[in-house]
């Protein structure tokens, strides 16, 4: 049976403060305290003291950290300690109020109760809130809450300059050769995180498939470079992706082979319709219940050949392989 989590003690926080001051790694601190590394990482992130007026006072101080942790737990328990307040909050959630509206209303009311909207969110996503299905009452519903300090603006990862709305018309109309679309085909979670990448040239519909053992971005980009780099530069001018986190290392394409990247709008995978259509074709041979790790590289290569040797109506019943070869020959002449 798994050991339940025990809150960090003052003595443990004192050890963390001393070792952190000596710039000892979080992994080493975790080993010395016989704690999980994520516990140390979370502790330093949540209870690090920030002071805008006196930046020199910033740091991880064990007494301050312990007080911050205790205050957070007291705040979280406020709705558990006060059944009337808890019932009132739940009624307002049922009326469609957001936690911020509830907390703001309490601040201007005459009653003594005060709540932070963060406390309401924590209760909603706690085990009690889950049992009462309170998350369904929120204006924006999620199964699980995102980590509060892990929300990063995606505009920095996927710049507006690379948005699909700025993609040249010559690419949109398929008038120019050498522009690709890419996507990942995901399979049943119980079979692991292995997946298959689909890469399709927009004009010829020529398809490249390769297997990935997980969804880490850098290995996926390395595989993309390995498959496309042997082509002439004009045959690999750009790639269009959705905004999945598996594509955050897209800058490796520019460094590795000078290929530009374009990104669909949020929640709009249909904007890369060529690869989405190709995925449907591949699913005939690799349905969601496929165990990807059991598929050999030879089988994937044969599947690519089958797709590229199949006549397509949109190509005047030529095959993608024929059109792709014609385009390459035209570039050389």
Automatic annotation (TrEMBL):
Keyword NADP attached: no
Biological process annotations from GO: DNA integration; DNA recombination; transposition
GO terms of molecular function: nucleic acid binding; transposase activity
Domain (Integrase catalytic): residue spans on this chain: 164-328
Keywords: DNA recombination
Any Gene Ontology CC annotation: cytosol
Alphabetized PANTHER family for the sequence: TRANSPOSASE, TRANSPOSASE INSI FOR INSERTION SEQUENCE ELEMENT IS30A-RELATED
Protein name: IS30 family transposase
Native organism taxonomy: Bacteria, Pseudomonadati, Pseudomonadota, Alphaproteobacteria, Hyphomicrobiales
